Every structure is written in C-alpha cells, then in structure tokens.
Amino acid sequence: MSDTLARILRDKQAEVAAGASAVSITEMEKRALDQEKPRDFMGALCRAIGEGRTGLIAEIKRASPSGGLIRDPFEPAALAQAYEIAGASCLSVLTDAKYFQGSAEYLRAARAACALPVLRKDFMIHPWQVFEARAMGADAILLIMSALTDARAQELEEVARSLDMAVLAEVHDAREMDRALGLQTRLIGVNNRNLKTLETDLAISEALVPLVPADRIPVAESGLRNTDDVARMAKVGAHCILVGEFLMRQPDVAAATRALLGT
Fold first, then answer.
1. pLDDT for res 135
2. 92, 121, 205, 245: the active-site residue
3. What is the pLDDT of residue 128?
4. Which of 60, 64, 95, 109 has the highest CB neighbour count under 10 A?
5. Is 2 assigned a catalytic role?
6. pLDDT digits (tens, 9 = 90+) for 110-162
7. How many helices (H) and strands (E) does the chain have?
8. Helices in 51-149 by DSSP H: which ranges?
C-alpha cells in the first residue's frame, strides 16, 4: 500500500467513525432502503458493448491529490447532462471531501440531472458507507482491492448486492486481480495509475486485462486521452473505460467526450 493511500485510509476511518456516531448504521440502512430502485449500472455498460460501442464511465471530479484543482467553476448537474448527451453510459462522481473536494451533494445533483446510472467514487471501508452511498442515490460503489482485506471486500459486496447496487472491483496488479475474481461482481476495473508514483501507464491494462475471464467485464481506468488510447484498450479486451481528469480539464466536455469515443 502506498503512503498516500495509507494516509487517505487513516483519515477515512476517522471520517466514517464520526459519521456513524452522528447517524447510526441502522438509521443509514433505513435511509438506503427508502430510496427508489437503483439504475442498472452494469446493464448500461453491457448494452454499450452489445451495440458495438465503448462503455464509458464518465467521471465528475473537481480535484485530486495528483492533479490539484482540476475544474473551476464546477457544476455537477451541467457536467452530467453534457456526458449523457455525448454518449456516456454511466457516471462516476467523487464524494471524498478532503483529498478530492467531492461531496454527496455533487452526486445527488449529477444523478438528478440525467438518466445515467451513477457510481459513488470513494474509499469504501465500512458497511455504513455502502448504506450511505445508496441513501445519497448511488447505483454502484467502487471497491479498491489494495485498500481492503478479502473478508471486508466480500462483506461490502454483500451489502451492496442486498441493495441491488453494482460493484466495480478495482485492481492494480495480478495479485489483486486474483483477489477481485473471488468476488461475485462481473465488473473488474484495472487502474493504470501507479499508486506509489501516481503516474499512469496503459501497459498496466495491457498486462492485466487479458487475465480477466470471459464471464467478467474489464474496465480500463485512468490515463486515456484519445481514440488511439481507447482502441489500444479495446485491442486487449477492455471495451469499457473510466475517464475523469482528462475530460474534466476540457472547456467543452461534451465535444471532448464525443471525440474520445469517436462519435
């Protein structure tokens, strides 16, 4: 585990403890169950693949530890609409406040502005957060395997499945791939960002995506900037991608998304 990730997880533990003290897990579960049925996150990606399109999970992100402030002004609702119009299949919205300047309100605003399924992008370490994700309207959660034990990853997945939410299991190397394949989710994200150097290299996906079994759906994450990169990922079997910072830095997000998808 990188020092950056370890620091984020320590802060996240304190954040979750404070949240659970303010709102009990029983109350948060009730709030989650009071929500409307989740949108079909995996189904949206499968439809894109079935139609011969790239399944794009378009990310809404204001800032990051590696990139600093990425977009200002930052309007999640307008960004969600732009992504939807341009052909994205799903959204990913950062909710971590300390390191990514995210919030639950950003996710709510983005989801309310479009019909796309939404992934809560955060550092999920406790069942309370899964209930919180559904309570804020998220249709899917991210599980970062390098941040979780196998037992905790399985526990979080079980909670998500009980709420009819999708799970994207993120890996960075072959060992994490093996662990992720022990989960039930079909969505396996391969992050091209080195968590120690924070640099991106598409060769990570080129090495790991071929290890994904045919009954799973690989998602190439980070470092994609043009149609050549998208084609490079498709060549090794990743027909779904997650792109955030590159698109967030473009003045016309819809035009940039169309250009990336080649539409």
1. 98
2. 121
3. 98
4. 60
5. no
6. 999 999 999 999 999 999 999 999 999 999 999 999 999 999 999 999 999 99
7. 13, 10
8. 76-86, 97-100, 104-112, 127-135
In 3D, which of 66, 93, 58, 87 has the Cα closest to residue 219? 58
CATH number for the domain spanning 200: value is 3.20.20.70
Torsion, Cα of 106, 111, 113, 114 (10° steps): 140
Which residues sit opposite 241 in a β-bridge? 56, 220
Between CA 109 and CA 77 the distance in angstroms is: 5
Rounded to whole angstroms, the Cα distance separating 27 from 116 reads: 27
Reply yes or no on whether 27 is catalytic. no
Active site includes 222?
Answer: yes
Question: Domain count of the chain?
Answer: 1
Structure tokens at 84: 């939807």
Domain, as residue range, for 71: 4-261
User: Considering 64, 92, 191, 192, which one is annotated as catalytic?
Assistant: 191
Neighbours of 23 (CB within 10 A): 15
Q: Tell me what pLDDT residue 46 has.
A: 98
- N residues, the chain: 263
For every residue of 39-64, which 3-state class applies, written as one string? CCHHHHHHHHHHCCCCEEEEEECCEE
